[in-house]
């Protein structure tokens, strides 16, 4: 069981509405009000006001132990960037043609809002980074910027993939639905994720990627819950980019989704399946890359100036799973990918992506034309593709990691 911190929503900035100052009491050595002797009805009234105010701002604990700050949109980390300083978030663009969006304002995809909490209009929910988060990391300077690799750069890095990909064309986005699991991760410095990659450039020094999906990362979050995440880089993960909102880059516009917060509900083996929709596409008017999550919830965008190659288009799209294998015990990790079961087990047992599509130059969703499959170590994690009328192009993927055929 993970520890539950005293978690609450904090509304940052009085700009969200006037907060009446509490009348001050005579100085008594800074003793807390609750510990003071209440001599008058006036003191009791003040204590009640303090108690009511605290109950108002200190919300019930999130089941995942997170503290969520409701930050005014124009004060989020993105606007620390020199090219965004003093600006405000842009209005949403037109979605790609062929996309059916149901803006599901009442849907709950994350644990922190299961209690009915949300952030006020004009703010964005940001998961607070704590001292414990920083102390878990192997390098403070690389916190939130863990070196990660896409498929073609995985040899010898400890990163293993089971993915489908397509290249050879100009891509302006990608879309899919994927089911959410809670795979076991065996140590703090490994992770397991499932995501979409938007890729351009070479795989050496100038790789541009935009990434979104769910991940289990004990180092980053301190638990084994699947969490909604984003990532970006413009120099092959060397110095630019980060997870979520841990650097200036991604601009969030949504007050219902906290990037980095735990996803709920989750799929269960041979039981109910829960999947989420993800779509990334390039706004034809301004050139920024937008992200949609769930059933039509616009999360925000990556400004085009963050990138070099992705200022125009992507030359590859990729879908699937990735794990890190540190071999910390001298053999292959038992960190699971997806559900922890192989693709051949199929529906309700293996993890899947369905309804795979890309976005073309005309801002239209189109089927994939030349999809290819790759598994770095198919005895550890594998992948199988299919197509039908209900799911369009789909695939199952994943595995348990270490087993008799994966020593």
From TrEMBL:
Gene3D superfamilies cross-referenced by the UniProt entry: Outer-capsid protein sigma 3, large lobe
Signal peptide: 1-21
InterPro entries: Glutamic_endopeptidase (IPR053168), Neprosin (IPR004314), Neprosin_propep (IPR025521)
Region (Disordered): 78-106
Keyword Electron transport part of the UniProt annotation: no
Domain (Neprosin PEP catalytic) ranges: 153-407
Keywords annotated in UniProt: Signal
Keyword Signal applies: yes
PROSITE patterns: NEPROSIN_PEP_CD (PS52045)
Protein name (database record): Neprosin PEP catalytic domain-containing protein
Organism whose genome encodes this protein: Hibiscus sabdariffa (roselle)
